[in-house]
Amino acid sequence: MVRHFLSVTDMNREESEALLDRAAALKAEWYAAGRGVHPGMPMQGRTLALVFEKPSLRTRVAFESGMTQLGGHPSYLSANDIDMGGRESVPDVARNLSRWVQVIAARVFKHSTVETLARYSSVPVINALCDVEHPCQALADMLTLREHFGRLQGLKLAYVGDGNNVCNSLLLLGATLGVNVAVGAPQDYLPDPEIVARAEVLAAESDATITVTTSPSEAVADAHAVYTDVWASMGQEHEAARRRPVFEPYRVDAALMAQANSSALAMHCLPAHRGEEMSAEVIDGPRSVIFDQAENRLHVQKALVLTLLGM
Ligand code: CP
Ligand code: NVA
Protein backbone atom coordinates (compact mmCIF):
# COMPACT_ATOMS: atom_id res chain seq x y z
CA MET A 1 0.00 0.00 0.00
CA VAL A 2 1.65 3.25 -1.17
CA ARG A 3 1.41 6.12 1.28
CA HIS A 4 0.82 9.62 -0.16
CA PHE A 5 0.77 13.00 1.58
CA LEU A 6 -1.68 15.22 -0.29
CA SER A 7 -3.26 16.80 2.78
CA VAL A 8 -2.23 17.29 6.40
CA THR A 9 -5.23 15.06 7.16
CA ASP A 10 -3.46 12.12 5.52
CA MET A 11 -1.82 11.70 8.92
CA ASN A 12 -3.71 11.37 12.18
CA ARG A 13 -2.67 13.07 15.39
CA GLU A 14 -0.31 10.31 16.48
CA GLU A 15 1.38 10.17 13.08
CA SER A 16 1.68 13.96 12.85
CA GLU A 17 3.27 14.12 16.29
CA ALA A 18 5.64 11.30 15.39
CA LEU A 19 6.59 13.17 12.23
CA LEU A 20 7.39 16.33 14.23
CA ASP A 21 9.44 14.24 16.67
CA ARG A 22 11.35 12.73 13.79
CA ALA A 23 11.95 16.15 12.20
CA ALA A 24 13.32 17.44 15.51
CA ALA A 25 15.60 14.39 15.77
CA LEU A 26 16.85 14.87 12.20
CA LYS A 27 17.48 18.54 12.96
CA ALA A 28 19.59 17.63 15.99
CA GLU A 29 21.42 14.95 14.02
CA TRP A 30 22.15 17.37 11.18
CA TYR A 31 23.57 19.99 13.55
CA ALA A 32 25.63 17.31 15.30
CA ALA A 33 27.02 16.40 11.86
CA GLY A 34 28.13 20.01 11.35
CA ARG A 35 25.11 20.65 9.05
CA GLY A 36 26.57 18.09 6.68
CA VAL A 37 25.53 14.59 5.70
CA HIS A 38 23.41 12.35 7.92
CA PRO A 39 25.19 9.27 9.27
CA GLY A 40 24.37 6.22 7.17
CA MET A 41 23.06 8.36 4.27
CA PRO A 42 19.71 6.48 4.27
CA MET A 43 18.56 7.83 0.89
CA GLN A 44 21.69 6.67 -0.95
CA GLY A 45 20.77 5.47 -4.43
CA ARG A 46 17.28 6.97 -4.17
CA THR A 47 15.81 9.86 -6.18
CA LEU A 48 13.06 12.37 -5.43
CA ALA A 49 11.34 13.90 -8.47
CA LEU A 50 10.20 17.49 -8.00
CA VAL A 51 7.39 18.26 -10.45
CA PHE A 52 6.78 22.02 -10.17
CA GLU A 53 4.20 23.99 -12.14
CA LYS A 54 4.90 27.15 -10.10
CA PRO A 55 8.01 28.96 -8.78
CA SER A 56 9.58 28.06 -5.44
CA LEU A 57 12.58 28.91 -3.30
CA ARG A 58 11.97 27.21 0.06
CA THR A 59 10.09 24.08 -0.97
CA ARG A 60 12.44 23.27 -3.82
CA VAL A 61 15.73 23.94 -2.01
CA ALA A 62 14.56 22.27 1.21
CA PHE A 63 13.74 19.10 -0.75
CA GLU A 64 16.91 19.28 -2.87
CA SER A 65 19.33 19.95 -0.03
CA GLY A 66 17.44 17.52 2.21
CA MET A 67 17.97 14.75 -0.35
CA THR A 68 21.67 15.62 -0.64
CA GLN A 69 22.08 15.53 3.14
CA LEU A 70 20.36 12.12 3.30
CA GLY A 71 22.64 10.78 0.57
CA GLY A 72 19.96 10.79 -2.14
CA HIS A 73 19.39 12.82 -5.29
CA PRO A 74 16.68 15.30 -6.37
CA SER A 75 15.51 15.66 -9.96
CA TYR A 76 13.82 19.02 -10.54
CA LEU A 77 11.31 19.23 -13.38
CA SER A 78 9.78 22.62 -14.14
CA ALA A 79 6.68 23.23 -16.23
CA ASN A 80 9.03 24.00 -19.14
CA ASP A 81 10.76 20.64 -18.81
CA ILE A 82 7.78 18.32 -18.91
CA ASP A 83 4.69 20.45 -19.67
CA MET A 84 2.52 18.13 -17.58
CA GLY A 85 -0.97 17.91 -19.06
CA GLY A 86 0.31 19.31 -22.38
CA ARG A 87 3.21 17.33 -23.79
CA GLU A 88 2.34 14.41 -21.53
CA SER A 89 -0.78 13.49 -19.56
CA VAL A 90 -0.71 13.63 -15.76
CA PRO A 91 -1.27 9.83 -15.43
CA ASP A 92 1.60 9.13 -17.84
CA VAL A 93 3.94 11.46 -15.94
CA ALA A 94 3.11 9.50 -12.78
CA ARG A 95 3.53 6.12 -14.50
CA ASN A 96 6.91 7.09 -15.95
CA LEU A 97 8.36 8.68 -12.82
CA SER A 98 7.28 5.66 -10.75
CA ARG A 99 9.58 3.49 -12.85
CA TRP A 100 12.67 5.59 -12.03
CA VAL A 101 12.31 7.40 -8.71
CA GLN A 102 11.32 6.48 -5.17
CA VAL A 103 9.27 9.61 -4.28
CA ILE A 104 7.50 12.42 -6.14
CA ALA A 105 6.82 15.91 -4.77
CA ALA A 106 4.50 18.04 -6.88
CA ARG A 107 3.62 21.75 -6.78
CA VAL A 108 0.55 22.26 -8.91
CA PHE A 109 -2.28 24.67 -9.64
CA LYS A 110 -5.16 22.27 -9.03
CA HIS A 111 -5.54 19.82 -6.16
CA SER A 112 -7.00 17.33 -8.64
CA THR A 113 -3.57 17.16 -10.31
CA VAL A 114 -1.84 15.82 -7.17
CA GLU A 115 -4.76 13.42 -6.72
CA THR A 116 -4.30 12.15 -10.28
CA LEU A 117 -0.53 11.83 -9.82
CA ALA A 118 -1.15 9.81 -6.65
CA ARG A 119 -3.75 7.61 -8.34
CA TYR A 120 -1.34 6.58 -11.11
CA SER A 121 1.90 6.57 -9.13
CA SER A 122 3.31 3.44 -7.51
CA VAL A 123 5.60 5.60 -5.31
CA PRO A 124 4.58 8.14 -2.64
CA VAL A 125 3.38 11.54 -3.88
CA ILE A 126 3.84 14.62 -1.69
CA ASN A 127 1.75 17.77 -2.17
CA ALA A 128 4.32 20.57 -2.40
CA LEU A 129 1.50 23.18 -2.61
CA CYS A 130 -1.72 23.34 -4.57
CA ASP A 131 -4.76 25.62 -4.58
CA VAL A 132 -6.29 23.86 -1.56
CA GLU A 133 -3.37 23.07 0.77
CA HIS A 134 0.29 23.60 1.59
CA PRO A 135 0.81 20.69 3.96
CA CYS A 136 4.66 20.75 4.14
CA GLN A 137 4.45 24.38 5.26
CA ALA A 138 1.98 23.65 8.06
CA LEU A 139 4.22 20.85 9.38
CA ALA A 140 7.19 23.26 9.54
CA ASP A 141 5.01 25.86 11.24
CA MET A 142 3.86 23.43 13.93
CA LEU A 143 7.46 22.36 14.54
CA THR A 144 8.39 26.05 14.92
CA LEU A 145 5.58 26.66 17.41
CA ARG A 146 6.52 23.56 19.39
CA GLU A 147 10.16 24.64 19.55
CA HIS A 148 9.22 28.04 20.92
CA PHE A 149 6.50 27.04 23.38
CA GLY A 150 7.51 23.48 24.23
CA ARG A 151 3.96 22.31 23.45
CA LEU A 152 1.16 22.72 20.92
CA GLN A 153 -1.94 21.76 22.92
CA GLY A 154 -3.84 24.86 24.01
CA LEU A 155 -1.83 27.43 22.03
CA LYS A 156 -3.78 30.01 20.04
CA LEU A 157 -2.62 30.58 16.47
CA ALA A 158 -4.19 33.57 14.71
CA TYR A 159 -4.10 33.61 10.92
CA VAL A 160 -4.93 37.03 9.48
CA GLY A 161 -5.36 37.57 5.73
CA ASP A 162 -6.43 35.47 2.77
CA GLY A 163 -8.29 32.24 3.58
CA ASN A 164 -6.02 30.37 1.17
CA ASN A 165 -4.04 27.11 0.87
CA VAL A 166 -1.71 28.00 3.77
CA CYS A 167 -4.68 28.98 5.95
CA ASN A 168 -6.46 25.71 5.13
CA SER A 169 -3.50 23.52 6.11
CA LEU A 170 -2.99 25.48 9.34
CA LEU A 171 -6.68 25.07 10.20
CA LEU A 172 -6.62 21.32 9.61
CA LEU A 173 -3.23 20.53 11.17
CA GLY A 174 -3.69 22.93 14.08
CA ALA A 175 -7.05 21.31 14.83
CA THR A 176 -5.46 17.85 14.64
CA LEU A 177 -2.74 18.80 17.12
CA GLY A 178 -4.84 20.65 19.71
CA VAL A 179 -3.98 24.19 18.58
CA ASN A 180 -6.80 26.75 18.79
CA VAL A 181 -6.86 28.35 15.34
CA ALA A 182 -8.53 31.72 14.74
CA VAL A 183 -8.84 33.10 11.21
CA GLY A 184 -9.48 36.79 10.55
CA ALA A 185 -10.21 37.39 6.87
CA PRO A 186 -12.30 39.72 4.67
CA GLN A 187 -15.84 38.47 4.05
CA ASP A 188 -15.14 37.45 0.45
CA TYR A 189 -11.86 35.73 1.35
CA LEU A 190 -12.87 33.57 4.31
CA PRO A 191 -11.62 29.97 4.19
CA ASP A 192 -13.77 27.38 2.42
CA PRO A 193 -16.64 26.43 4.78
CA GLU A 194 -16.06 22.77 3.98
CA ILE A 195 -12.45 23.01 5.27
CA VAL A 196 -13.64 24.91 8.35
CA ALA A 197 -16.24 22.22 9.05
CA ARG A 198 -13.57 19.49 8.80
CA ALA A 199 -11.30 21.49 11.11
CA GLU A 200 -14.13 21.82 13.62
CA VAL A 201 -14.59 18.05 13.72
CA LEU A 202 -10.84 17.54 14.28
CA ALA A 203 -10.75 20.32 16.89
CA ALA A 204 -13.56 18.67 18.85
CA GLU A 205 -11.41 15.51 19.04
CA SER A 206 -8.25 17.36 20.13
CA ASP A 207 -10.01 19.66 22.59
CA ALA A 208 -9.23 22.75 20.52
CA THR A 209 -11.36 25.53 19.05
CA ILE A 210 -11.77 27.00 15.59
CA THR A 211 -12.78 30.65 15.19
CA VAL A 212 -13.55 32.31 11.87
CA THR A 213 -14.21 36.04 11.87
CA THR A 214 -13.89 39.12 9.67
CA SER A 215 -12.34 41.01 12.61
CA PRO A 216 -8.53 40.94 12.74
CA SER A 217 -8.66 42.21 16.36
CA GLU A 218 -10.91 39.34 17.42
CA ALA A 219 -8.68 36.82 15.64
CA VAL A 220 -5.45 37.99 17.34
CA ALA A 221 -6.85 38.52 20.86
CA ASP A 222 -4.65 36.54 23.31
CA ALA A 223 -2.91 34.75 20.43
CA HIS A 224 0.47 33.09 21.00
CA ALA A 225 1.34 33.60 17.34
CA VAL A 226 0.06 35.82 14.54
CA TYR A 227 0.48 34.43 11.03
CA THR A 228 -0.11 35.92 7.62
CA ASP A 229 0.53 35.16 3.94
CA VAL A 230 0.49 37.13 0.69
CA TRP A 231 -2.75 38.82 -0.31
CA ALA A 232 -2.54 37.39 -3.85
CA SER A 233 -1.17 33.86 -4.24
CA MET A 234 0.71 32.46 -7.20
CA GLY A 235 -1.66 32.49 -10.15
CA GLN A 236 -3.71 35.37 -8.67
CA GLU A 237 -1.23 38.13 -9.52
CA HIS A 238 -3.78 39.75 -11.86
CA GLU A 239 -6.09 40.23 -8.85
CA ALA A 240 -3.46 42.03 -6.73
CA ALA A 241 -4.72 45.58 -7.38
CA ARG A 242 -8.33 44.61 -6.65
CA ARG A 243 -7.39 42.75 -3.48
CA ARG A 244 -5.08 45.39 -1.98
CA PRO A 245 -7.73 47.80 -0.62
CA VAL A 246 -9.82 44.90 0.71
CA PHE A 247 -6.87 43.49 2.66
CA GLU A 248 -5.41 46.81 3.97
CA PRO A 249 -7.22 46.46 7.35
CA TYR A 250 -5.71 42.97 7.71
CA ARG A 251 -2.04 44.02 7.59
CA VAL A 252 -0.06 42.48 10.44
CA ASP A 253 1.73 45.51 11.87
CA ALA A 254 2.91 46.60 15.32
CA ALA A 255 -0.58 47.88 16.20
CA LEU A 256 -2.19 44.51 15.45
CA MET A 257 0.62 42.58 17.19
CA ALA A 258 -0.02 44.74 20.29
CA GLN A 259 -3.52 43.23 20.47
CA ALA A 260 -2.12 39.68 20.71
CA ASN A 261 -0.40 38.03 23.69
CA SER A 262 2.51 40.27 24.78
CA SER A 263 5.07 37.65 23.73
CA ALA A 264 3.26 36.54 20.57
CA LEU A 265 5.37 35.32 17.67
CA ALA A 266 5.03 36.78 14.16
CA MET A 267 4.84 34.13 11.45
CA HIS A 268 4.84 34.14 7.64
CA CYS A 269 5.36 31.26 5.19
CA LEU A 270 7.31 33.55 2.81
CA PRO A 271 7.86 35.04 0.31
CA ALA A 272 6.80 38.25 2.09
CA HIS A 273 6.06 41.76 0.91
CA ARG A 274 7.24 44.19 3.57
CA GLY A 275 4.63 46.87 4.10
CA GLU A 276 1.83 44.91 2.45
CA GLU A 277 0.52 41.90 4.39
CA MET A 278 3.11 42.39 7.15
CA SER A 279 5.03 45.53 8.13
CA ALA A 280 8.83 45.51 7.81
CA GLU A 281 9.00 46.31 11.52
CA VAL A 282 7.21 43.06 12.37
CA ILE A 283 8.94 40.88 9.74
CA ASP A 284 12.38 42.00 10.89
CA GLY A 285 11.46 42.44 14.55
CA PRO A 286 12.44 40.41 17.61
CA ARG A 287 9.22 38.35 17.67
CA SER A 288 9.56 37.19 14.09
CA VAL A 289 10.26 33.47 13.59
CA ILE A 290 9.86 33.48 9.83
CA PHE A 291 13.34 32.18 9.05
CA ASP A 292 12.96 29.45 11.68
CA GLN A 293 9.83 28.41 9.80
CA ALA A 294 11.82 28.43 6.55
CA GLU A 295 14.61 26.33 8.06
CA ASN A 296 12.14 23.87 9.51
CA ARG A 297 10.87 23.13 6.01
CA LEU A 298 14.15 21.21 5.57
CA HIS A 299 13.69 19.09 8.66
CA VAL A 300 10.01 18.23 8.22
CA GLN A 301 10.42 17.42 4.52
CA LYS A 302 13.28 15.02 5.28
CA ALA A 303 11.16 13.37 7.97
CA LEU A 304 8.26 13.15 5.53
CA VAL A 305 10.25 11.48 2.73
CA LEU A 306 11.70 8.89 5.13
CA THR A 307 8.35 8.23 6.79
CA LEU A 308 6.44 7.77 3.53
CA LEU A 309 9.10 5.32 2.37
CA GLY A 310 8.64 3.36 5.59
CA MET A 311 12.26 4.02 6.52
N1 CP B 1 6.79 29.00 1.70
C1 CP B 1 7.06 28.41 0.53
O1 CP B 1 6.50 27.38 0.19
O2 CP B 1 7.99 29.03 -0.23
P1 CP B 1 8.31 28.71 -1.75
O3 CP B 1 7.09 29.09 -2.54
O4 CP B 1 9.50 29.57 -2.08
O5 CP B 1 8.59 27.25 -1.89
N1 NVA C 1 -0.48 31.23 -0.66
C1 NVA C 1 0.80 31.31 -1.31
C2 NVA C 1 1.82 30.53 -0.59
C3 NVA C 1 3.22 30.60 -1.14
C4 NVA C 1 4.19 29.74 -0.40
C5 NVA C 1 0.67 30.84 -2.74
O1 NVA C 1 -0.05 29.86 -2.97
O2 NVA C 1 1.26 31.45 -3.63
TrEMBL record:
InterPro entries: Asp/Orn_carbamoyltranf_P-bd, Asp/Orn_carbamoylTrfase, Asp/Orn_carbamoylTrfase_sf, Asp_carbamoyltransf_Asp/Orn-bd, Orn/put_carbamltrans, OTCase_ArgI. Pathway: Amino-acid biosynthesis; L-arginine biosynthesis; L-arginine from L-ornithine and carbamoyl phosphate: step 1/3. It catalyses: carbamoyl phosphate + L-ornithine = L-citrulline + phosphate + H(+). GO terms for cellular component: cytoplasm. Carbamoyl phosphate binds at residues 107, 134-137, 269-270, 297. Residues 153-307 form the Aspartate/ornithine carbamoyltransferase Asp/Orn-binding domain. GO terms for biological process: citrulline biosynthetic process; L-arginine biosynthetic process via ornithine. Its EC number is 2.1.3.3. Keywords: Cytoplasm, Transferase. Its main location: cytoplasm. It comes from the Bacteria. One of its GO terms (molecular function) is ornithine carbamoyltransferase activity. It is an enzyme of class 2 (transferase). It holds the Pfam family OTCace. SUPFAM superfamilies: Aspartate/ornithine carbamoyltransferase (SSF53671). It is found in: Cytoplasm. L-ornithine binds at residues 165, 229, 233-234. Residues 3-147 form the Aspartate/ornithine carbamoyltransferase carbamoyl-P binding domain. NCBIfam families: orni_carb_tr, PRK00779.1. PANTHER family: ORNITHINE CARBAMOYLTRANSFERASE, MITOCHONDRIAL, ORNITHINE TRANSCARBAMYLASE, MITOCHONDRIAL. Belongs to the aspartate/ornithine carbamoyltransferase superfamily. OTCase family. This is Ornithine carbamoyltransferase. It comes from Oscillochloris trichoides DG-6.
